[in-house]
Amino acid sequence: MNDNGTGTHGAVLPDTPAPRDTPLVELRRAGKSYGNVRALHGVDLTVRAGRVTCVLGDNGAGKSTLIKIISGLHRHTEGDFLVDGRPVRFGTPRDALDQGIAAVYQDLATVPLMPVWRNFFLGSELTRGPWPLRRLDIARMKETADRELRRMGIVLDDLEQPVGTLSGGQRQCVAIARAVHFGARVLILDEPTAALGVKQSGVVLKYIAAARERGLGVVFITHNPHHAYMVGDHFSVLRLGTLELSAARGDITLEQLTDHMAGGAELATLKHELSQVRGVELDALPEDLGDTFPEGTT
Ligand SMILES: Nc1ncnc2c1ncn2[C@@H]1O[C@H](COP(=O)(O)OP(=O)(O)O)[C@@H](O)[C@H]1O
Ligand SMILES: [Mg+2]
Predict the structure, then answer these.
(1) Which of 13, 75, 113, 180 has the greatest CB tally within 10 Å of its CB?
(2) Which CATH number do you get for residue 250?
(3) Which-ligand-closest: CA of 59?
(4) What is the pLDDT of residues 46-100, one digit of tens each?
(5) Is residue 21 a contact partner of residue 49, using CB atoms and an 8 Å limit?
(6) Residue 137 Cα, ligand 1 centroid: separation in angstroms?
(7) Which strands make up the sheet holding 86-87, listed edge to edge?
(8) Would 249 be classed as within a structural domain?
(9) Looking at the domain assignment, is residue 83 inside a domain?
(10) What is the CA(56)–ligand 1 centre distance, in A?
């Protein structure tokens, strides 16, 4: 390997695989408008293999819009979106999946009354035998689901149990293991711990760490700086659609991250409250209301 990482001969051929340090996913000055609502603007984000990129921000900050772009649900309207260093423009989530980008949403696409193993293979069932005698290969599906769940450190007593009987944390974990099994290189988790208690959140954080250990690039959306700091390698804080902070783990403490989040939440809440009051011109308010309203008065 030479200095510029292009291989032993230094020649850059059209088919040369991306150098090892090329990010899996990269957004450069990316943005998205819904009609004339600008939900996201000028956002840079990098997702690397074996790293957890946390995206934080209050409600309405643009977190969901951001991951909808990456997962193929929405197209960006500004800037660049690259996968393995190549510009892409996805039309559907299928396009993203084909590139190994999988999103696990909070309202999971699981069928509560179906057994765990069946949910694991939902939409991608294994079959055996030649057509027209082809049948579901139940034994192989159970065995594979069991093996994949164990590889992620998830041990369930009975894969026949309906997915609806699992805890919220366990359901997230089944969805994560499923995405990994079906070839995800980039795993996007939208607020996976938001509805969970402390213990269940810990379970999910453990699997986020497990996914990272397996070399996936993880995008972890959360509004909880404590959860983010437990597993994150990089932190990006969105506020009102723009990147308010982008910091590597070594460059920021949990206290600083928490301060950024708390400040943002207060400001957004205050602006929202004030917007309900007639006669208040929001644009005339100072950018940083911290000095205007001393602690305890907001
Ligand atoms: N489909 C849409 N049409 C119009 N505006 C939208 C749409 N989706 C989101 N928005 C707006 O974009 C902004 C960012 O929303 P969103 O990405 O959902 O934020 P978050 O996930 O951080 O709460 C909000 O002001 C929201 O009202
Ligand atoms: Mg959201």
Answers:
(1) 180
(2) 3.40.50.300
(3) 1
(4) 999 999 999 999 889 999 999 999 999 999 999 999 999 999 999 899 999 999 9
(5) no
(6) 42
(7) 37-47, 25-34, 78-83, 86-87
(8) yes
(9) yes
(10) 15
